[in-house]
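User: New here, any thoughts?
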Amino acid sequence: MRIRRVESGLTVNAIGGTHVVLLGLDLRDDKRAGCLGFAIQREDHTENERYWLRGYKTFRATDPGLGPGGTAASREHPFQTFQWADYSAKPSHNYTYTVIPLYGTPTQLSEGHAVSVGVRTEAESGGTHSVWFNRGAIASQEYARQFLNRAPSKVANQAAYRWLSRGLLEAMLAFIGRARDASFGLHGAVYEFQWGAVLEALGEAADRGANVTIVYDAIQGGTGPVVKNKAAIAQAGIDLLCKRRTRGKLMHNKFFILTQNGQPIAVWTGSTNLTENGIFGHSNLGHVIEDSTVAQAYLDYWQELKNDATTADLKQWTASNNVAPPNPWNRDTTTAFSPRSGLALLDWYATIAQAGQKPLMMTFAFGMNKRFQRVYEQNDGVLRIALMEKEGSGRGLAQGKIDIARIRRLPNVVMAIGNNITLNSFDRWLKERSKLSNEVNVRYVHTKYMLVDPLGPQPVVVTGSANFSEASTNTNDENMLVIRNDTRVADIYVGEFMRLYSHYAFREAAKHALENGEDPNEWHPSDLVEDDTWQADYFTSGHSRFLRRRYFAGA
């Protein structure tokens, strides 16, 4: 949902996803002088609550003496930003957000003209597309506060697991639960196939009479999941439901197809591996498409996986049956399967990313391919944001660090790389967990999606299992969706992107402060600026904050 209101020189542009409401703010020049930030009040009409939203930063002059992890009401300690988000929103709720510019001094704040917007958040399930994101933030102040950084398995009543899942596991189990009887079928292709609750749910669907067949990665050699997959399958007692994929390079898919009376009706896909870390640890998503044409395309592809086609045979199949880029591109939801010969698909994604010189947001789990480095490395006044697990992987990490450092120096490019707060050296921060368990390859960012002009009238969302890499295009078994012109989908994705971008951007700044030897007595990231100079970057033409202010405010 999107709503924009301008009154008395204050702009409030609200974008409602499922669990996130973004607010893009702006002030007319004659309203800026003396403004110390914005107080924001949220009224929840669904649960009949009203309160000031809270933040971690405070004025030193009126410091309330917060303890580690403490927060302060924005009416006394305003938000000094023109792009703010409510990450505690709930799906299908009616809210009113009232934004009030505050003037004066920290000890004597006065209110400017208030602007209110009504927002109804999106339902998680609905229409052609439904999307669930896990919390993706075990490295967080909230996890440290609620669960004292204990391992989720040590927290009673699965409470930590539920908080981390944030509906992702529950939605996956509900999708499997739709196979109610013998008229239904479930056909899956899964890379890491180990989380007991999911395997047991598939067994229960088969017990209800559903036709269940799961292809799983059983490719020998390397560091693949074959040993753990086999052990989990044996423990769940579903060996007869599973088929091994042994002849490919890397069976990296994570999808299920639901059929009814032999006809495909829906698909679950996304980035989520069926492991503890995949569902609860690093950031992941599940995406359901209720579209028989899309589901049929997945089923045709799945048949090739079930038959354990070689990589060469799959490349021939995709060339004939899944032409990408499509010509003509005449569907708003397009499937793209791998492996395939050549890199035309990856080139297509790069072309989409820079088409029309529109704002771009992407996640990268294992570094940034050169094609996308070229897209980002343009000093052209177009806002481009990237969220990364790390700058590169393996032998490419050192060069990746050099490349990313160079790119992020551009004024229109902003990046965040996953980190956690390791020490309580600065101000009032709680120490955070760095990972869910000892055996993790990815700690923070595992999603693979691209958002092109997500707040525009014709956004493009590319999402799925592939890492926007050469290997994910011409070697691995992968699936992607290219979705055009769906503002509901874009609103959900952009809110979640900015949630994690903001989360990790601060943690990266804290890490750099420690590495640079900042004196805890001198570096105060929790202090608000006590005059209106905090606004300067937001009104400096070409600065990334200037670009963010204008884009999120709908200018």
About this structure: The chain is about 25% helix and 25% strand. The mean pLDDT is 95. Residues 2-120 form a domain with the Immunoglobulin-like fold (CATH 2.60.40.10). The two ends are 18 Å apart (CA to CA).
